[in-house]
């Protein structure tokens, strides 16, 4: 079902009034985690002002350590719903368990399946049955074939609204958090009709590397990007070192407009 052979036309995915996979770029921006109401609304107003198309923020966080901040749960989803109400931005947030499906149906526009859950087949079937747009991240050590098969799980449940997201893979290189596999963009676009975006924040883990890799992703043909933005990255509860300052996000948006039209 994901193959371009049977479905040669690129798929367009509608999220409120925007289209992913059309002729305009989609920019998903926001903090790694929803930390509290004030901070989240502050960041949302800024990214909206600079032209972001969708807002991101995690309420259920898949953290490496069980002692790290785990997210605000439903309270975080309510804050995200308030962001949507105030800014009109559609909401993208991660689902980490099928038990969260009802809450996600109520509060968000796009459910994200994170890299660590890319082969959680029960979760894939669950988001397939939910029928909401899904952002499917590439697993930390997943081949493109495995990633597309994960997407196939979702489509096989009747949900064709899948956006693929390249977010870097594990290699022997340690300078960056992961290694951004930009080749995946043209490869995937040839194999499938599904739109593909790039997350240079998790791919590099380093703020200063995010802007050049975002530009490169768009130049390589990505349908959009997802970036982490924070007003005080030093105080962020997760992923501060890779979060852009508002001024950097503004400058990135100016660059992107030169490369391709943004929604
Ligand atoms: C995220 O986008 O918040 C996230 C946890 O990303 P990934 O699953 O790619 O690590
Ligand atoms: Mn993050």
UniProtKB/TrEMBL annotation:
Task: Provide the GO biological process annotations.
Answer: L-phenylalanine biosynthetic process
Q: Does the keyword rRNA processing apply?
A: no
Keyword list (alphabetical) reads: Transferase
In which domain of life is the source organism classified?
Answer: Bacteria
Q: Which Gene Ontology molecular-function terms are recorded? A: aldehyde-lyase activity; prephenate dehydratase activity; transferase activity
Q: What is this protein called?
A: 3-deoxy-D-arabinoheptulosonate-7-phosphate synthase
Specify the species: Thermodesulforhabdus norvegica
Q: Which residues of the full protein are shown?
A: 70 to 332 of 630
